[in-house]
Structure formats: C-alpha cells, structure tokens
Amino acid sequence: MKICVLPGDGIGPEITAQAVRVLDALRREGLVLEMEEALLGGCAVDAGGDPYPEATRRLARAADAVLLGAVGGPKWDALPREQRPERGLLGIRKDLGLFANLRPAVVYPELANASTLKPEVVGGLDLLIVRELTGDIYFGQPRGIEVRGGERVGFNTMVYSESEIRRIARVAFEAARKRQRRVCSVDKMNVLEATQLWRDVVTEVAVEYPDVELSHMLVDNAAMQLVRDPKQFDVMVTGNMFGDILSDEAAMLTGSIGMLPSASLDENGKGLFEPCHGSAPDIAGRGQANPLATILSAAMMLRYSLGQPGAAQRVEAAVKRVLASGLRTADIHEPGTTRVGTVEMGDAVLAAL
Ligand code: IPM
Ligand code: MG
C-alpha cells in the first residue's frame, strides 16, 4: 500500500512526523506500506510557485491514500488567489474526486471539561458531520470580482446537481447504518433554490434507507441546536460551505480541535486524511502542537482506505490510554494533568501501542 504524505505548513511537519512514526511502528510489525513525502500548500509555493505541483499530483494519484498535516499561514496571505496554500488543498480535493468529507466530533470522557460548554451538554457526544467537498459555492461558476456600473461587484455561484447530492446523501445514510441510524440534513431551503433541490433529493434517497430516520433542519437553526443540545444529532449531512462552518462549530464542542481527525473520500474509498485543525502558525516549530488529531487521522486511513480496521482500533486505543494516563499537550492541558510536547506525546502513543 502506498501512502502519499503531505506535511504542509506551520505545525504540519511536526504533527505529521508523529503520525508517520506510528505507521512505521505498524510497518515493523508486518503491515506492508510505503510512504513518500511531497509538497502541498505554502511550502510548495515557496519551492516552485504552485501550491499543488505536478510531482505531488502524480504521487497523490498513484497512492492508495494521502496523509496531510495542514496548509497555510500569514506568510502567503498576500499572494494572488491561485498561489495561496488553500488553493492547493481545494485543488487536491477536486483532482482526486474527494467528495465525501467525514468529520467526527467525539468528546473523550477525560476531556469533557475542556469544552467551553457544560460537561452535561457535551459529555458522551458522538456526532458525525458528512460534508460535501467538491461542489457548492466553493467551485461554482461564474465567480469573480468585476466592475459593473462604475463599482466593483463580487459574485459566486451556489450550485448542486442532483447526482452530487445523491452520492453524498448515500454516504451519510450508509454511515448512519453503522451508528444510531439517524440522519439530519441541513439546508437553507427557505431562501436558496440550490438547497431546495438538496432537500428534495435527500428525501428521495431516504426511500432506499427505510431503516434510517431522516430529518431536515435549516442551517441557522442547526448552528443554534449544535450549541443548545448537540447530542440530538447522530449524522449530519450538508453542503460544502455549511459543512465548513458547522464542522468548526462542532469541533469546538469537544474542547479541542487538536483532537479531531477527518477523512475525505472518493467513490472507491481512496481518501485523504487530515486533522480538522489548521496550520497554527503561532506555535509552529515550538514542539507544542497536539499530534493526536493527525495520529487519529492515520487511524481513519487504516480503517477507510487501507482495509486495516484492527490496526486502526489499536491506534485509537493507544490514544485513549495516553489520555487516561494524564498526558496533555498545551491545548488540552488542565490542572492535575501532565503537560507534554509534540514528540513526547508521540513517544507516549508509541509506547501505548
Ligand atoms: C477546511 C478549511 C478549508 C475549507 C480551507 C482551508 C480552504 O477551512 O478544510 O475546513 O474551507 O474547506
Ligand atoms: Mg474549515
């Protein structure tokens, strides 16, 4: 199995290194895998002006799975849009057809106090956001900024075809079958036609899944319900932009975005796996970043793309043991626990494994 490793920018290289150590340990025990690194994001811009260079494209296309750290940082913010690190991320998602983004928000019992919400509101939370990732206003045409009638006008297009909606709805229903069998579809059908179609098509797909309960919610209400009573949700399915926003909100319910992995899958189960958090340029290079979201992303990769559920479970169990033993990186540290850095956290996971 070939894995393309894209450390990226900011804390990306530090946290990815710890996930690679975990995969290396599994390899020493007999898991057959090859890892090769390439550039994506700001580091790729620095090296050759293109955030998703040809060499990376070739490697990513040939790989069975991609492990990504994080991309972006203030250093590249002033560049033209095509050269921004985010363009690399959007480019690889589109190029590999990674339309299904799975973003779990799970509260670990040990970390229930880390949330800004009351422990009784978030304790035991286990929510999966299924975000469509290659359509919507992110990719819709026409788009741009132009002068109309003597002033500048900015415009984007929210667009979804029924085939795009149908395939992401199926991912959500299939995921729900392995969980509590409830799907909540989020839209803004009271205002936006594109999302009226979204609601209609999701409702049609639901007929194929009589064993799964479907509900619908408007996005503004969903944002409110997520902080009011997040445990009412099992699987939430939504479009690219609403999913971007709601998944950050859901991540924060858990108290540490530094703990959350994500998977972006194509139609055949090939995927890109990355932590939900960003490149955290403010703490880059200081050895303080939490590598657990990236290590848990490697676990998702083992499960979803490499057909190694046993290995995935072992990695997840190792992370739980480390948390139970009281080790914490700065982002999840609280009195009475032991503060450690990125590499020590990696050491502890390896030891627990
Ligand atoms: C995410 C990020 C990206 C997105 C950015 C960096 C382009 O916020 O993965 O959620 O908006 O999809
Ligand atoms: Mg986002």
Describe the structure.
There is one protein chain. The protein has 353 residues and is α/β, with parallel strands linked by helices. It folds into two domains: 187 residues, Isopropylmalate Dehydrogenase; 128 residues, Isopropylmalate Dehydrogenase (3-Layer(aba) Sandwich). 40% of the residues lie in helices and 20% in strands. The protein is built from twelve helices and 14 strands. The strands form three sheets. It has a ten-stranded mixed sheet with strand order 2-1-3-12-11-4-5-10-8-9, sandwiched between helices. Helix 1 links the parallel strand 1 and strand 2. Helix 10 packs antiparallel against helix 11. The longest helix is centred in the first third of the chain and has 17 residues. The mean pLDDT is 95. The structure holds 3-isopropylmalic acid (IPM) and magnesium ion.
Number of strands: 14
Q: Give the domain tally.
A: 2
Quick one: overall form? globular
Q: Mind telling me which CATH architecture of the largest domain this is?
A: 3-Layer(aba) Sandwich
Bound compounds, please?
3-isopropylmalic acid, magnesium ion
Which secondary-structure class do the elements indicate?
alpha/beta
CATH class (first level) name of the largest domain: Alpha Beta
Q: From the alpha-carbon coordinates, what is the Rg to the nearest angstrom?
A: 20 Å
- In spatial order, strands of the major sheet run 2-1-3-12-11-4-5-10-8-9
| Biggest sheet layout | 10 strands, mixed
Overall pLDDT level: 95
Secondary-structure element pattern, one letter each: EHEHHEHEHEEEHEHEHEHEEHHEEH
The count of helical stretches stands at 12
Helical residue percent band: 40-55%
CATH superfamily placement of the largest domain = Isopropylmalate Dehydrogenase
**Spans of at least 5 consecutive residues with low confidence:** none
Binned strand content:
15-25%
CATH third-level topology of the largest domain:
Isopropylmalate Dehydrogenase
Question: How widely separated are the two ends?
Answer: 21 Å
